[in-house]
Amino acid sequence: MSDESRSTPAQTSVAAVIPAAGRGVRLGPGAPKALRALSGTPMLIHAVRALAASRHVALVVVVAPPDGAAEVKSLLDAHALPDRTDFLVVPGGESRQESVRLGLEALPPQYGIVLVHDAARPLVPVDTVDAVVEAVRDGAPAVVPALPLADTVKEVAPAAEAGEPEPVVATPERSRLRAVQTPQGFDRATLVRAHESVTENVTDDASMVEQLGLPVVAVPGHEEAFKVTRPLDLVLAEAVLARRRLNDGF
């Protein structure tokens, strides 16, 4: 492709990939975490609606459990979703990294900006989604929403034996630390390259781009974009939804 015909992020459409193939063991036995109900609606549907609420997002790709694509497609069909957004369901892989890669491979060529979002962050506000997209459009190859830490963080060494106290070895400077959320946003070519070449020390998609030696920037995250992983998180998520209904008619 010539330089003249190559699209820039500002000229391309935005797609979101939501890997939803995990089992969510920390929430206990039962349905996969993404299909757990939150105020009577599966968390996955809340997450899809949250991404589709952005005026930038034209396509949402849901990466389903390998044997559950039909079930997830039926789920999407059964819930009201924005008409202006397209939706696609593809089967995922055995790992989150493989599922994101399969979601990327399913994207039509016109989508030059890709968001990767955790299905377990069902309440991310649209302003956060928009801020990530706009930072990619402004030229950043990778963008993460992030929050300052409220707690002091300690680095510890392994305990001598299981159950023993862990020795503290350092106290990182809290002002320079951030808790990273999703959606994370990427120039598509950058994310594809990362998935083709990075296989180790993967903590999130942005960490893969870091290993390429490319810059990753942070924009302000939001306290309501927390990850639902424990039963207590479900209680908090229900409270957030109840407040939204009361205040905004959500």
Automatic annotation (TrEMBL):
Site positions per UniProt: Transition state stabilizer: R26, K33
Keyword Transferase attached: yes
InterPro entries reported in the protein's UniProt record: IspD, IspD/TarI, IspD/TarI_cytidylyltransf_bact, ISPD_synthase_CS, Nucleotide-diphossugar_trans
Pfam families in UniProt: IspD
Substrates-to-products reaction catalysed: 2-C-methyl-D-erythritol 4-phosphate + CTP + H(+) = 4-CDP-2-C-methyl-D-erythritol + diphosphate
Pathway: Isoprenoid biosynthesis; isopentenyl diphosphate biosynthesis via DXP pathway; isopentenyl diphosphate from 1-deoxy-D-xylulose 5-phosphate: step 2/6
GO molecular function, one term: 2-C-methyl-D-erythritol 4-phosphate cytidylyltransferase activity
Protein EC: 2.7.7.60
Keywords in alphabetical order: Isoprene biosynthesis, Nucleotidyltransferase, Transferase
Alphabetical list of PROSITE patterns matching this protein: ISPD (PS01295)
Residues the UniProt record annotates as site (Positions MEP for the nucleophilic attack): R174, K227
Family the UniProt entry places it in: Belongs to the IspD/TarI cytidylyltransferase family. IspD subfamily.
Role of this protein: Catalyzes the formation of 4-diphosphocytidyl-2-C-methyl-D-erythritol from CTP and 2-C-methyl-D-erythritol 4-phosphate (MEP).
NCBIfam families from the UniProt entry: ispD
Record-linked PANTHER family: 2-C-METHYL-D-ERYTHRITOL 4-PHOSPHATE CYTIDYLYLTRANSFERASE, CHLOROPLASTIC
Name of the protein this chain belongs to: 2-C-methyl-D-erythritol 4-phosphate cytidylyltransferase
Source organism: Streptomyces tricolor
